[in-house]
């Protein structure tokens, strides 16, 4: 398989050590994550899969810094993750765009918060609106855009900050199949261009296999990592080989192996 890009350099950016997360609520305690150990290397595109409620979003929230593990630790570049940081940009399924601002103002927002000078702000915003194909919609309000366009705007809003790490929680789950394909191609191109590290939650095994350099499968609650697979189909998905990669024996075998773990047929999964 020909690799067009390989920005993975072996440097660990995020390290999770024996991470446990117990939710305490009025109706009792829920152990969402138990003994999660994971090293995320710079430049990796990690796709996370697992049954509903297994703790995928909880794991993302810990890496984002929205919540702290109840035991164990989450480190970024060797330091505990203590809160949200623009260096870890988060993209959700429902784009959090401010309805009273235009698309351009929304995209600009993070740069303004970081006091980037106006000229520079304008240039970076224009660049990312162009990348996500929304230059002509810069002065529209979010309600005037389709679901796919809103998701592209929300991507641009995160990407203008040029975060080293992009965390995505089923970002394309609400989009139709055609738009989803386009968005996948877009995020792949951005990942390759910016050499960012991506942590991407999905329920769709084909989405995982077409984007990831590593697929992580979690068990049902309490969520643990039960399978880690290195893959490289993404390098072929953008070119003329995409169909042959998608229907190769290797692809089908890996697809089945992931689905077996999710459906708990493979008791030997490690
Ligand atoms: N604030 C909370 N209080 C109590 N329990 C919670 C809370 N948030 C999540 N949980 C529980 O923790 C478990 C993990 O939830 P989480 O949302 O991380 O799973 P998930 O794998 O992302 O699910 P899905 O695939 O359905 O989005 C679930 O059983 C959920 O009910």
TrEMBL record:
It comes from the Bacteria. GO terms for molecular function: ATP binding; ATP hydrolysis activity. PANTHER family: ALIPHATIC SULFONATES IMPORT ATP-BINDING PROTEIN SSUB, TAURINE IMPORT ATP-BINDING PROTEIN-RELATED. Residues 14-245 form the ABC transporter domain. This is Abc transporter. Keywords: ATP-binding, Nucleotide-binding, Transport. It comes from Trichococcus pasteurii.
